[in-house]
Specification:
Helices cover 64% and strands 1% of the residues. The protein is mostly helical and 597 residues long. Strand 1 and strand 2 form a beta hairpin. The longest helix has 34 residues.
């Protein structure tokens, strides 16, 4: 209430712009957020720490899941890789549920808190089921002592636990990134720069959190201490939840805007009812609401854009609606321009989003086939054994290095050369660079596999460590993946957050996760198709249980070829894309330059 009184009593406070945020955020009680007391880096750091601990917990399960399935549940390599891909894909499918609840009803804070609670429950159940039912006899699961058979009840409890983990993490993840960005007012120049920096630090926190999982936890789990690893993950998730709740009164919030699907359907129905109407050449005569009347609860209007002109019919004012304009508007016959542009924004984002799916197919190999490839290489230095899953720590180091290089070296150099201020490469340009580096990663993985096969023992009972080629030859492919993530996934986070309407920010983040989800499912489908085709005439196939009899290298080269084709399609889509135009923010010429490819 202090802000309302200040606005009424002293108009000079508006000129100072230092009392309340300008983007419409509110505090815990629903009052306008006071800049000096809420949000900014105090809240941002709490969220970054929370993200690091949650990531540690999640990857404590995910990074070695393929080995758990092969060693403890006795699944073959192809089945384990498929099951991990399906599980990971389901994690990100659940992100749509979290984004919908956040944008529509709960708000981001409540959604994050509830799904973190589900995440903790899933991890505790996983640790209990593993400790009590799956590790029989004791000490099994280390690659040397085989585990016994398990009852259907044991398997059911295990899958219930990991899919609760998937639900909790999936519903939480798209909202925490957006909630962190909410702590910075992009209408304020200084905080706007901090918001851009937040996405890089957010992805860095995500990777640093997984570093502990990939090294320390990965080492203990690889040695058969699965229950210990899962209990550490549960403890990390619990402390993350406590930390998140401690910052409750420090956060800035956006109010939920209601069901977006209803708004989308209203636009389509209203436009369809006027399919025969002749539209004026310009968009100036279309219906729009002022801020007080806005039904979408959006803080900023979206200006009219060309393209998808059929949808403009939803905002066309007929003679009948002109008579009714004084009374209550029928939202299924007449929609404001902002509501129509929401639908256009989503339609424009979809082609770009679809082009990121093949990249996610490449990315998901790091948690499945890269691990299986590494396990079949020389993993010992003297008497010390290196867990194959811990090689992903080189991916994390690569991410950290390239985030620094991108922010401190590449961005200033590009900005100076292109005279674009502090922008550097646009989000679309960075995503394109990420696809190029992903091709290099698959080529590197294929070459390493060729040499691994050259030095491998074809006939082996337990083929782990059956090649004399050192596992450290995998470092380049992990480093390439890490570099590509900085350009692709950080660029994606920024792009979908910036280009999504105010009422669909969590949906924008969910699109990033959905591309990973579908990437996992496409990866699973590709593995199944490749195995079906390559096992004809009694051949062992490209990815058999004994990798020394297969051709995993051909699968990696296939992914390199598919990513190259995807890059060509992406360039076409990126050139076609038009940015969102927000009232008072988007300047046509500047935005057009920033989004060029």
């Amino acid at each position: 209430m202090a802000c309302f009184k200040a606005w009424k009593e002293d108009l000079e406070l508006k000129e100072e712009g230092a009392v309340c945020t300008l983007d419409g955020t509110v505090d815990w009680h629903g009052h306008p957020a006071i800049k000096t007391k809420l949000g900014r880096w105090v809240a941002g750091i709490i969220i970054l720490l929370n993200q690091g601990l949650i990531t540690l917990a999640f990857f404590g399960v995910g990074v070695n899941l393929v080995l758990f399935l092969t060693r403890v549940l006795q699944q073959d390599n192809a089945s384990a890789a498929n099951n991990v891909s399906k599980w990971t894909g389901t994690v990100y499918i659940f992100s749509l549920i979290g984004a919908f609840l956040s944008d529509s009803y709960w708000g981001r804070f409540k959604t994050c808190a509830i799904f973190q609670g589900i995440f903790v429950v899933g991890l505790v159940l996983l640790a209990l089921s593993t400790n009590l039912f799956l590790l029989r006899p004791k000490g099994c699961g280390d690659g040397e002592i085989p585990c016994g058979t398990h009852s259907k009840m044991d398997i059911t409890l295990f899958y219930l636990a990991i899919y609760l983990v998937a639900l909790g993490y999936g519903g939480y993840q798209p909202n925490i990134a957006t909630f962190g960005a909410d702590q910075f007012d992009e209408e304020d120049h200084k905080e706007g720069k901090s918001k851009v920096a937040f996405f890089s630090y957010f992805y860095l926190a995500l990777n640093l959190g997984s570093l502990f999982s990939n090294t320390i936890l990965g080492y203990f789990e690889d040695g058969g201490m699965w229950a210990l690893g899962f209990w550490v993950s549960a403890a990390s998730a619990f402390f993350a939840l406590v930390l998140f709740l401690v910052g409750t009164l420090r956060y800035r919030h956006f109010k939920p805007t209601g069901n977006p699907w209803a708004r989308f359907c209203q636009v389509v129905v209203a436009a369809s009812k006027k399919w025969h109407v002749e539209m004026p050449p310009s968009g100036k005569e279309l219906y729009d609401e002022d801020g007080k009347e806005s039904s979408t609860n959006s803080n900023r209007k979206i200006l009219h854009t060309d393209g998808f002109k059929f949808l403009d019919r939803a905002a066309h004012i007929s003679s009948k609606e002109l008579e009714e304009k004084e009374g209550k508007r029928n939202p299924w016959r007449l929609c404001p321009v902002t509501q129509v542009e929401e639908v256009k924004c989503v339609l424009r984002l979809l082609p770009i989003w679809l082009c990121t799916i093949i990249y996610s197919v490449v990315f998901t190999q790091m948690a499945s086939l890269f691990v299986e490839q590494g396990a079949a290489m020389k993993t010992t230095i003297s008497n010390f054994r290196i867990p194959a899953a811990s090689m992903s720590s080189f991916d994390i180091l690569s991410v950290a290095i390239f985030i620094f290089l991108n922010r401190r070296v590449l961005t200033p150099v590009v900005a100076r050369l292109t005279k674009s201020g502090s922008k550097g490469l646009s989000e679309l340009q960075r995503m394109g660079v990420g696809l190029v580096i992903a091709v290099l990663a698959m080529v590197a993985a294929g070459i390493v596999e060729c040499y691994r096969l050259k030095y491998a023992v074809k006939e082996c009972a337990n083929c782990e460590g059956s090649s004399s080629l050192s596992i450290f030859w995998q470092v380049p492919q992990y480093a390439f993946i890490g570099a590509s993530e900085v350009f692709m996934y950080v660029g994606q986070l920024e792009f979908f957050n910036a280009q999504s309407p105010d009422g669909l920010k969590s949906f924008g983040s969910a699109l990033c996760m959905m591309s990973i989800s579908l990437g996992n499912y496409v990866s699973s489908l590709l593995v199944s198709m490749v195995m079906k085709i390559s096992t004809d005439n009694n051949m062992p196939g490209w990815i058999p249980g004994n990798l020394n009899k297969g051709h995993l290298d051909r699968f990696f080269f296939l992914l390199a070829a598919l990513t190259t084709v995807d890059l060509g399609v992406y360039i076409v889509c990126a050139r076609w894309y038009k940015c969102i135009k927000l009232e008072g923010k988007c300047e046509d010429e500047k935005e057009g330059e920033n989004l060029k490819v």
